[in-house]
């Protein structure tokens, strides 16, 4: 993961200086609705660069804004959020068995020992159907046998992004364009401002415990499951874990700033990841359709997630982020 970001100790702590950079501005799409603003960088993995409210005192950030390094290094991991296709999180040793063959994804990114987050976040997306408050982003993958570890299935991914005066909505969809079945999962990877007072609320049934490589070992109870019901402090545990069978809703609250952001999801976003490393400013609460290493994992489908798209089959579901100030 990227180096820690400066902690956002107030809602206006991070100014968007890169918005005025003439080398960056042409890469961006900005949506507006009332006081809300959403800045998108289609060419950097179809990522969101900032989601904030314009106030007289400056931007009030609902997601952690992109750093300047995100643009100079073209790194979605330093953006506000980015899409996950055609699977979420890690695949052990970058290999899995499917349809009688071994799918080998090794070599697609030497930074990681295990395949990570699919391939759509590493590629540029195209923008279309732009209005002041909405845009379509799309990406089409054609397998290339000359690229080590390239995803061997052909598919199309889309993000329909809509901003209203009340909420941000992103409909993720994908279609299998190939002539054979394709294993599949999707999600989004949002980073949130993290302060000592930040709390995360969610209803979940159990947590996937993980090994040193952040790969799941077993599903079971954990104090974080109960803490989420009462309001989990990101500083309470060292977390990079999947939570199964959540209620498809989570609230990130900043009580000292009298504000909160509620994320809701449609099926099949039946899994949630919390990334909250100790002594770090990063905080992710991610809606996903599959647990880590789902293509290798053993267990009931409701605990593992993911699916198989048949040739021509399409899947779509919507995520919503609703800010509230009190």
UniProtKB/TrEMBL annotation:
Question: Which GO BP annotation is one of this protein's?
Answer: carbohydrate metabolic process
Cross-referenced Pfam families: Aldose_epim
What is the protein's species of origin?
A: Paraburkholderia rhynchosiae
Entry's Gene Ontology molecular function annotations? carbohydrate binding; isomerase activity
Q: Which residues form the signal peptide?
A: none
Mind telling me what this protein is named? Aldose 1-epimerase
């Amino acid at each position: 993961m990227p180096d820690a970001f400066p902690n956002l100790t107030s809602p206006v702590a991070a100014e968007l200086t890169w918005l005025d950079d003439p080398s960056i501005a042409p890469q961006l799409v900005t949506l507006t609705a009332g006081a809300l603003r959403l800045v998108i960088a289609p060419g950097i993995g179809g990522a969101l660069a900032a989601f904030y409210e314009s106030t007289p005192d400056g931007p009030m950030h609902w997601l952690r804004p992109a750093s300047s390094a995100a643009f100079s290094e073209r790194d979605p991991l330093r953006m506000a959020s980015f899409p996950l296709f055609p699977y979420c999180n890690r695949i052990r040793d970058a290999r899995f068995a499917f349809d009688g063959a071994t799918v080998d994804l090794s070599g697609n990114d030497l930074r990681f020992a295990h395949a990570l987050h699919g391939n759509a976040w590493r590629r540029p997306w195209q923008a279309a159907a732009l209005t002041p408050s909405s845009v379509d982003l799309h990406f089409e993958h054609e397998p290339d046998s000359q690229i080590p570890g390239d995803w061997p299935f052909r598919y199309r991914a889309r993000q329909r992004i809509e901003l209203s005066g009340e909420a941000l909505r992103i409909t993720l969809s994908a279609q299998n364009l190939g002539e054979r079945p394709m294993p599949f999962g999707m999600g989004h990877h949002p980073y949130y401002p993290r302060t000592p007072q930040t709390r995360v609320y969610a209803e979940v049934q159990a947590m996937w415990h993980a090994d040193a490589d952040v790969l799941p070992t077993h599903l079971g109870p954990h104090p974080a499951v109960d803490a989420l019901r009462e309001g989990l402090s990101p500083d309470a545990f060292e977390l990079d874990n999947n939570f199964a069978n959540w209620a498809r809703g989570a609230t990130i609250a900043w009580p000292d700033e009298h504000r909160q952001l509620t994320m809701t999801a449609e099926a099949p976003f039946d899994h949630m990841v919390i990334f909250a490393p100790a002594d770090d400013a990063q905080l992710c609460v991610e809606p996903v359709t599959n647990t880590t290493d789902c293509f290798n994992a053993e267990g009931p489908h409701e605990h593992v997630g993911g699916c198989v798209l048949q040739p021509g089959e399409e899947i779509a579901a919507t995520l919503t982020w609703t800010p509230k100030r009190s």
